[in-house]
Design a protein that fits this description.
Length: 571
């Protein structure tokens, strides 16, 4: 319930619509009760053949109540839905604003299918907070109180019977059915999340699954999960049906009891016979109004759960960003001191007691076997991963005192896999904020050895119409368009042949000559151009020094170099 508080606050921000929908709901409810009880009274009174004028007055009252009830019901729907749509758009904005700055961290922790189901499905589920959780009890309670007060004017016994019936129908029966529905609802939610992730995986991996002929197997898994989901939904709906039927039966029993009780009172001379139909109609109509209350516990649980899931995404945002931001120099010095990071599901730390000194303006290569922890070091530096122990400083400032925005503004980054947007080559070069003219863009393309690409050439989804090497060179052209005091290059040239790789590295280092450069690589090409080489193995730094120092040392680097040369000669 606590998780719902911020969303309930958003509902109460729509004070006017909320008030109008409650008012219209109350008028619609009370006039419906009035309409049927007046009809009952009219029928009974007509049997006594009163003067026509009396009947006309009652008929006019019935008509007026009928029209008022219909108009108020429309008003209730109109204002409550308007408040809901405004609230939903405010929730969507709120969620987006909170998630956007932490998207990097979230993508590391949740699958994209899960994130999608939270920001779409769970946000949509919150529309029921107002429509089915907040205002129905307020409207129902006020209608019941007014009806019961009205009934006590004629028969206190009938009022007591209605109160008992309502307590059973509104509290006891829904609570009992809710308890038996709870487990299956938990299962439904779990299966829905699983299905969403599974489906995203299927769509993303469609090509690989087809090539490896594993598509049918996956499809079957998705189908099985859909079937399981449908069965669980059916089970939940059947519990709901039984709950509705039991409430219907109870309302019928209460109405029959009222009829017998009031009939007995008439026979005893304690109640005017003309009121019998009125009391029966009041009972029947008031029970008709409780239908939305039967599903309230279900919607309350669903909304609270949705709110919790959204909140858990937003919790990432609670990591406080510094108020006062730092100012950086032309090139940035970097220091890692005893930095350790262990992923939750891993047996050993991805990086352990890592100590690195990178002087400002220097060029450092971090090398090591696959999985040794190179990218993790870069991610820590880019604040994409929180570390467990140690200190990281950039330009003398602790990483925690630097906002992500400032950090990324001052960094030119090439990730292992770069994203390419559907559009033109120009669109893909202009992803930076800086506005650049066509001549500069063309120069960047030429420098990245892509003279055959025109700025208006089409780039398909994920750059599918470009070769692996062309994609990397397009990413390099992007880098060339941006100035920054720190360059972090994670394997920027792995898809290139050795000679092109050498030229590209030279080009990048030339462009970043005044900046601090960190190059992550598991190949050793071009490392003689670096000021410092750090060798990582199993998350620990095992060697570091200049190219010449490491070659002279008979260590890991020298062995790797010898092995690479041998492979190169064999090719
Ligand atoms: N998000 C993650 N969750 C759990 N473990 C992870 C995660 N990212 C990386 N790891 C683990 O941390 C270790 C270091 O990974 P890292 O990506 O830093 O290696 P790397 O040296 O960059 O490898 P490569 O050269 O193959 O890119 C690996 O054992 C990897 O399985």
């Amino acid at each position: 319930m606590k998780a719902l508080t911020p969303f309930i606050k958003l509902i109460f921000a729509e004070k006017r619509d909320l008030f109008l929908s409650i008012l219209a709901g109350f008028i619609a409810g009370i006039t419906a009760v009035g309409l049927f009880s007046a009809s009952g009274y009219l029928i009974s009174h007509a049997a006594l053949t009163p003067p026509i004028a009396t009947l006309m007055v009652i008929v006019a009252i019935v008509k007026l109540l009928g029209i008022t009830s219909a108009v108020s019901r429309f008003g209730e729907r109109y204002y409550s839905h308007r408040a809901t749509f405004t609230m939903l758009s405010n929730i969507r904005l709120r969620v987006y604003e909170k998630l956007e700055p932490v998207s990097n961290r979230i993508l590391n922790r949740y699958t994209s299918g899960d994130i999608l189901s939270r920001i779409v499905g769970d946000v949509d589920a919150l529309q029921n907070v107002l429509l089915r959780v907040v205002y129905p009890p307020i409207v129902m309670l006020s209608v019941f109180l007014a009806t019961i007060a009205f009934t006590t004017l004629f028969s206190i016994g009938t009022a007591v019977l209605i109160i008992l019936g309502l307590t059973l129908s509104l509290l006891v029966i829904p609570a009992l059915f809710f308890l038996s529905q709870r487990r299956v609802n938990d299962q439904i939610r779990e299966t829905r999340g699983e299905l969403s992730s599974m489906f995203a995986e299927y769509v993303y991996g469609f090509r690989e699954l087809t090539i490896h002929q594993a598509r049918q197997q996956r499809e079957q898994q998705v189908r099985n999960t859909i079937k399981q989901y449908e069965q669980q939904k059916q089970k939940s709906q059947s519990v709901q049906m039984w709950s509705d039927a039991t409430i219907g039966l109870l309302s019928f029993l209460v109405s029959v009891t009222v009829l017998f009780y009031a009939g007995f009172q008439v026979a005893e001379g304690n109640l005017a016979g003309i009121l019998l139909a009125l009391l029966l109609m009041i009972t029947l109509t008031v029970f008709e109004q409780i239908t939305p209350m039967a599903t309230l516990p279900y919607h309350l649980q669903e909304s609270a759960h949705a709110a919790k899931r959204i909140e858990s995404l937003e919790e990432e945002n609670n990591r406080v960003e510094p108020d006062v931001d730092v100012q950086f120099n032309e090139a940035l010095g970097i220091q890692f001191q005893d930095v350790t990071l262990q992923f939750a599901d891993q047996l050993r730390p991805a990086i352990q007691r890592v100590n690195i000194q990178i002087p400002s303006g220097s060029k450092t290569a971090i090398i090591g076997a696959s999985g040794s922890g190179k990218t993790t070091i870069a991610n820590v530096l880019l604040k994409a991963l929180p570390y467990d122990q140690g200190t990281v400083k950039i330009d003398g400032h602790e990483l925690s005192t630097i906002s992500e925005d400032t950090l990324w503004k001052n960094t030119n980054v090439s990730l292992q896999s770069n994203h390419f947007f559907v559009g033109t080559v120009r669109d893909n070069l202009l992803v930076t904020e800086e506005t650049t003219d066509d001549i500069t863009l063309q120069k960047a393309l030429h420098a990245a050895e892509l003279p055959h690409l025109k700025l208006d050439s089409r780039v398909e989804e994920k750059g599918q119409n470009l070769s692996g090497g062309e994609k990397q060179r397009l990413a390099i052209a992007r880098l060339l368009l941006r100035e920054a005091p720190l360059w972090v290059l994670d394997e920027p040239t792995t898809s290139l042949d050795a000679l092109t790789e050498e030229r590209m590295l030279r080009l990048l280092l030339e462009r970043a000559k005044d900046a601090t450069v960190i190059l992550i690589s598991h190949r050793l090409t071009g490392l003689d151009q670096m000021d410092q080489i750090i060798v990582v193995d199993h998350g620990q730094i095992i060697e570091s020094g200049t190219y010449d120092e490491l070659i002279q040392k008979d260590g890991y680097f020298k062995q790797m170099k010898a092995l690479e040369e041998q492979l190169f000669m064999n090719e």
